[in-house]
Design the sequence.
């Protein structure tokens, strides 16, 4: 049957089902197919913290949203154009996000009286006209999957579990995705279970064939490849990019990588990823707690490793004393905080940007620590290398503030030329016996430019020395309770961190027509939403400037000028105004905060409205 | 103490914790390990004796000074690294085992020593201690047990006897104390020993045995605090050779004490009983019977006394030994309770890296970044 083909410039699809329905996997595979096809894309998984909440309940709904387009895009999209609901709970939890006229594909087999009652439907929404504002495609996914697999020697349960592949096959046909990648993925994943592998492949093909033959789908869609910068691409998530950035930094610095970590959502994938790469000399240590994780990292740093700990907000609290010690003994250390909604346990799988002030101030005494934040999933790679550069060059702990949205979201990444990555080995050198002065080794004699102290590692003859958390005498490093010395050391440590400002790129402002009176400033994972919102505002005829901060401590040297250049500075944050507080305190600029803490990224349309409001009131 | 390694390393024998540590070209002297810092413990503190014994022992390692690292937490004992001229870190309260774990795991070429106290290791740092022991990281932990908080001026500690009257417990402490050796054995420590600050010879022999152990070594050192808990260990220190309070453990020897008149015998429930040994063929009387506690008379000739075996894989016997120690020091074993061969964590970690490299070669960064699913845009 030949079907009509309709061209679209972008599509937002949301797969939603029970936690056990394999929606994340289906979403991942569809993403991979889309990436290989050549669209630009952005993804957002959304899943409960509970591993398997009771089946069929609202608490157990897991979803995966993918935005793909024939042009470059910045976010996973606000509202889906297409919602695939695998059960009544998924429908109920997601239908409010589907705009009028949107496509709704439902797995009718799961709309049983029992499942409907579980989520509070009195009758089936498929039968009471409550969905008439959508294009509803009622597909008996489960029963068709089971029927397609009846000749296989597998249990009915295993057959039912393949329904995500049926759905994926159907959607892959609908959007003309290349299937080869998924088929070879299934072959590799189930290599040891040939019958299951064959069943999943058959389910995928059955879904594909259903799309092709059913009269329900009269149209097939095409989204052309996006004109991306030439190069070799892959799809990458934030946590993977961050882990690769750390491996790259270790190679570039010529230092062995040591990760001390304690499992915590949403940071654990960094531990999982790095644990695979022993060939690179990576040592991963799953500690007994967050404290030991960072403690072991600091021990490894003392020994000359590129030392890292990865955690989320609750773990940050526990690491504070060791980070303070790292500030005091002035050793390199990278602390990756994959922020999540707080306080306390908060919402472990939901995103937030509310650890900024904790990173700035969450230690006793004057304890300055540089802060670097990535702007997108792939940017986590560059941010990790930058954090490592600052850490080894200035012998300081450095925070890398990612978040749950970046960690689990993904986007196409043009592979960097590894020869073009910064040579971190030029940024530092271990102290050598030849550096011994006439007074012997002085562990706190500073480099006159960077103010960094020598990094003298055990095993180096003649440089034996003791360090610790007690205040040290300037230059000699001996224990000192001298009032003037303490004042000097506090100021020296601060000056060292402040001085990094001269060594970071100026913040760039995107102000195409030069007429903007309003600047939208952001940091971290809001880059995509703000960018998309700014585009919308410009499309509507407004002049607006955008700038995004990678360095939050110290700020780039031109930030004061940039802030003063505009009449109004709008600062959207997924917190209650933490960067705004810092900017007001530091620059006396009355920035306009726009804040949400819903565990989700900003929606571009909403943010565009806020921008237009501010512009109108300048 | 094992006689085999009682006299330094000599002729190519290497202390087993040092197999991956470089050997010094020339043997250093005690003075080489004295730093230029003034030692600032209270007059009469047991820490002086331990420091002196430690500094005098270090040359025996035959390791270059720069390959020795001493890491401590917080407390009086934790000041020790400042006084030893090697690499050192005076870190955070309770965290020394964690910091030392990272260092030892990433640098198998170092000899890493942890200095800690009863508050540091058993209170705030209890978690790190037990996990370092179970992992068998190649670190040597010296726990200075003075049964009191000294640096914070005299509060009771997790090893203080119940009822201890201190500033924080004017009506007597309510806590049941830890037995450090029992705790270490419960954590499956591969090496557990106990010694006394004032017995330099015994202390040194225990240090030597610890250095000759591949993996985590736990040494409890009874240490006198003359200011806040003076004479806490006096009953042991004053014990004569004929006193039944001190039991010196020697691997491979029947456990005899009190001048050989008493010994240890396995009780019916796996516990150890101290019994009187009257003659080779004679009968012994158990303590319980002697004290009229109602237990049945125990009869044992010399042959039924237990022979100390520190190398038993199962820790039950070593644990039973550790339970003899009571707050009133009725019987206190000292020496090596347990020393069993187990692969150390740092060794296993290095082996995994070597295995990954020999299986598929060193990592290729460009290949890692590319992964398996790439596409070209032209």
Sequence:
């Amino acid at each position: 049957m030949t079907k009509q083909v309709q061209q679209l410039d972008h599509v937002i699809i949301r797969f939603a089902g029970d936690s056990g329905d394999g929606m994340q996997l289906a979403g991942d595979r569809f993403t991979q197919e889309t990436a290989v096809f050549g669209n630009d894309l952005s993804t957002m998984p959304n899943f409960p913290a509970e591993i398997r909440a009771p089946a069929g309940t609202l608490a157990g709904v897991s979803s995966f949203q993918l935005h793909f387009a024939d042009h470059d895009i910045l976010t996973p999209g606000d509202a889906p154009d297409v919602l695939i609901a695998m059960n009544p709970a998924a429908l109920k939890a997601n239908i409010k996000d589907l705009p009028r006229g949107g496509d709704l594909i439902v797995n009718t087999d799961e709309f049983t009286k029992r499942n409907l009652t579980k989520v509070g439907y009195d009758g089936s929404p498929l039968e009471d006209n409550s969905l008439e504002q959508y294009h509803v495609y009622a597909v008996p996914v489960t029963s068709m999957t089971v029927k397609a697999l009846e000749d296989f020697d597998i249990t009915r349960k295993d057959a039912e579990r393949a329904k995500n592949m049926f759905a994926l096959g159907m959607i892959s046909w609908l959007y003309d995705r290349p299937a080869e990648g998924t088929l070879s993925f299934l072959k590799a994943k189930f290599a040891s279970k040939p019958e299951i592998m064959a069943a999943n492949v058959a389910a995928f093909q059955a879904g594909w064939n259903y799309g092709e033959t059913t009269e329900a789908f009269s149209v097939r869609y095409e989204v052309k490849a996006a004109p991306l910068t030439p190069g070799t691409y892959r799809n990458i998530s934030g946590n993977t990019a961050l882990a690769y950035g750390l491996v790259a930094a270790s190679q570039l610095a010529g230092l062995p990588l040591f990760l001390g970590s304690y499992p915590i959502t949403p940071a654990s994938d960094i531990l999982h990823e790095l644990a695979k790469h022993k060939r690179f000399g990576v040592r991963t240590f799953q500690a007994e707690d967050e404290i030991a994780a960072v403690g072991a990292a600091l021990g490894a740093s003392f020994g000359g490793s590129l030392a890292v700990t990865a955690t989320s907000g609750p773990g940050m609290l526990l690491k504070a004393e060791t980070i303070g010690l790292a500030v005091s003994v002035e050793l390199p250390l990278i602390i990756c905080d994959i922020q999540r909604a707080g306080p306390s346990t908060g919402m472990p799988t939901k995103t937030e940007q509310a650890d900024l002030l904790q990173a700035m101030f969450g230690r006793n005494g004057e304890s300055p620590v540089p802060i670097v934040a990535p702007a997108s999933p792939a940017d986590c790679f560059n941010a990790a290398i930058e954090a490592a550069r600052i850490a080894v060059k200035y012998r300081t702990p450095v925070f890398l503030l990612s978040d749950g949205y970046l960690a689990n979201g993904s986007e196409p990444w043009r592979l960097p030329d590894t020869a073009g990555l910064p040579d971190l080995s030029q940024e530092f050198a271990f102290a050598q016996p030849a550096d011994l002065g006439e007074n012997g080794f002085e562990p706190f004699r500073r480099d006159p430019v960077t103010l960094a102290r020598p990094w003298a590692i055990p095993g180096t003859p003649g440089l034996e020395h003791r360090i610790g958390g007690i205040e040290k005498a300037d230059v000699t490093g001996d224990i000192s309770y001298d009032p003037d010395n303490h004042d000097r050391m506090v100021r020296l440590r601060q000056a060292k961190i402040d001085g990094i400002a001269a060594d970071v790129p100026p913040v760039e402002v995107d102000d195409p027509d030069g007429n903007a009176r309003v600047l939208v400033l952001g940091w971290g994972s809001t880059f995509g939403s703000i960018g998309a919102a700014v585009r919308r505002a410009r499309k509507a005829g407004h002049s607006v400037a955008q700038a995004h901060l990678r360095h939050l401590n110290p700020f780039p040297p031109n930030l004061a000028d940039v802030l003063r250049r505009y009449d109004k500075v709008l600062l959207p944050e997924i917190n209650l105004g933490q960067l705004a507080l810092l900017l007001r305190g530091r620059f006396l600029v009355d920035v306009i905060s726009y804040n949400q803490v819903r565990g989700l990224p900003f929606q571009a349309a909403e943010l565009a409205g806020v921008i237009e409001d501010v512009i109108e009131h300048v | 103490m094992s006689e085999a390694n009682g006299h330094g390393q000599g002729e190519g024998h290497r202390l087993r914790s040092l197999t991956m540590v470089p050997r010094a070209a020339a043997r250093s002297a005690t003075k080489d390990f004295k730093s230029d810092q003034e030692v600032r413990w209270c007059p009469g503190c047991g820490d002086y004796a331990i420091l002196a014994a430690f500094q005098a022992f270090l040359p025996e390692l035959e390791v270059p000074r720069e390959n020795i690292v001493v890491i401590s937490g917080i407390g009086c004992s934790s000041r020790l690294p400042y006084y030893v001229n090697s690499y050192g870190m005076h870190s955070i309260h309770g965290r020394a085992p964690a910091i030392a774990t990272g260092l030892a795991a990433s640098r198998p070429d170092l000899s890493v020593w942890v200095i800690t106290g009863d508050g540091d290791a058993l209170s705030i740092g209890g978690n790190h201690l037990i996990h370092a022991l179970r992992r068998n990281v190649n670190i040597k932990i010296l726990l200075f047990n003075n049964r009191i908080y000294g640096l914070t001026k005299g509060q009771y500690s997790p090893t203080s006897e119940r009822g201890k009257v201190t500033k924080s417990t004017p009506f007597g402490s309510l806590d049941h104390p830890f037995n450090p050796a029992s705790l270490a054995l419960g954590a499956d420590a591969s090496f557990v020993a106990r010694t006394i600050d004032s017995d330099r010879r015994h202390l040194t022999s225990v240090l030597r045995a610890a250095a000759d152990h591949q993996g985590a070594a736990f040494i409890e050192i009874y240490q006198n605090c003359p200011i806040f808990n003076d004479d806490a260990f006096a009953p042991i220190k004053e014990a004569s050779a004929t006193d039944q309070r001190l039991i010196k453990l020697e691997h491979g020897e029947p456990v005899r004490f009190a001048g050989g008149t008493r010994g240890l015998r396995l009780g019916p429930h796996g516990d150890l009983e101290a019994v009187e040994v009257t003659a080779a063929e004679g009968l012994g009387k158990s303590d319980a019977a002697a004290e009229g506690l109602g237990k049945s008379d125990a009869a044992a000739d010399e042959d039924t006394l237990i022979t100390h075996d520190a190398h038993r894989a199962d820790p039950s016997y070593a644990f039973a030994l550790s339970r003899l120690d009571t707050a009133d020091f009725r019987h206190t074993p000292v020496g090596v309770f347990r020393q069993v061969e187990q692969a150390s964590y740092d060794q296993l970690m290095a082996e995994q890296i070597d295995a990954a490299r020999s299986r598929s070669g060193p990592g290729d960064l460009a290949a890692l970044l590319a992964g398996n699913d790439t596409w070209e845009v032209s």
About this structure: The longest strand of chain A covers residues 10-18. Residues 78 and 603 of chain A are 5 Å apart (CA to CA).
